[in-house]
Amino acid sequence: MHKLLEKIFNFLYPAFRDWGMSRNVASYTSLIFNIAILIALAYIIYYVAKFILVTLTAVFAQRTKTKFDDYLIQNKTTRYTAYLIPFFFIYKAVPVILDKYEYWESIFGKIVGIYIVLLGLWIVRTVFNSLRDYLKQKPEYSDKPIDSFVQVIMIVLWIFGVAMIISTLFGIKKGELLTILGTLSAIIILIFRDTILGFVSSVQVAINDMVRIGDWITMDKFGADGDVIEINLTTVKVRNFDNTITTIPTYALSSDSFQNWRGMQKSEGRRIKRHVLIKSSTIRFLNEKDLQQLRKVQLITSYIESRQAEIDRYNDLRGVDKTLSLNGRNMTNLGLFRKYIMQYLVDHPGLNKNMHIMCRQLQSTAHGVPLEIYVFSSDKRWANYEYIMADIFDHVMASVKYFDLEIFELPSTIGKFE
Q1: From CA 79, how far away is CA 55, in angstroms rounded?
Q2: If I label 262, which of 61, 272, 342, 367 is the partner at 20 to 30 A Cα–Cα?
Q3: At 273, which helix (H) or strand (E)?
Q4: φ, ψ for residue 34, nearest 5 deg
């Protein structure tokens, strides 16, 4: 190629000398013409390269089944490559054209060389961006932190690129330059501290499968409660349910605690765990009159019959004196209410019957006896889940009075100091 360039750019000077021009005039005149020829050839090479790499590649990409070449075109990889070819030609031609002008040859050679390095890095960046976009549209990679790995690769390439630029500018050998950078590693680590921590965290997140794009996470420290929309080298973006965006440092995922709701979303149901406080002073034994009234509650009619028959047999065998309700075995309004709620939950169409269904009594408190419902909604969508939970507790609070029970409420202070 060097000999070809010499034939193209070295024929003018002898011609001008043959026409009677002086040495200096012929030299500068040939230089001007050579620069004009160089620019013209660079434009021709660019348009030819653009036609081949951009136009023909676009046509080829439309006919292929793979999407990767479409992403290459979308990220302008072929366009930037078309720019690189003429600049490579200029880089090779400058030493030939400026052979007699060593100072300007050094300056322009360095400028073009630096531009080629930067353009080469940009082309590599578009290739990795295309690879990232291609992998993201595949289901098996759509939830992986691909951005983090692409950013790490680009940081390493930019470090080598900067080393090459410094080496080109100051004429330092690349080995010596890397040695100098090694001695400055402490400063580099300090500058890229967050990036390094983010990279380590990204690897941990990917290997341990802690967070994926699309996961619903809750992180109270940063006020995050929503879906992960992006994971990159330094930050994790969470779209909260009020459509605000919370940005979390990537390394915080491995150093702080957070809640990932993926397990719930993948399970067969979403848990409902809530209680009401029953006023303890309203809990009592049930007499025959009470039982006769509660037999009208269809969900527990058969239970009352069988349970009361069992209790009566027990008391009769032991000759229990039932003139006092405390003696022997008895049913209570709270116990019967628990049974009623349990049967109501079993019949509820919005609950998953293959998972836990419980209505349990918790440790008594100063505010009453907590009656907790522990079930799983079969519909995990937020709005529907809230509707099912509200529907259950609407019924619980409305049915309490039929069992002569009361829900605890703090007394009102309105009018107390009037």
Answers
A1: 10
A2: 342
A3: strand 270-278
A4: -65, -40
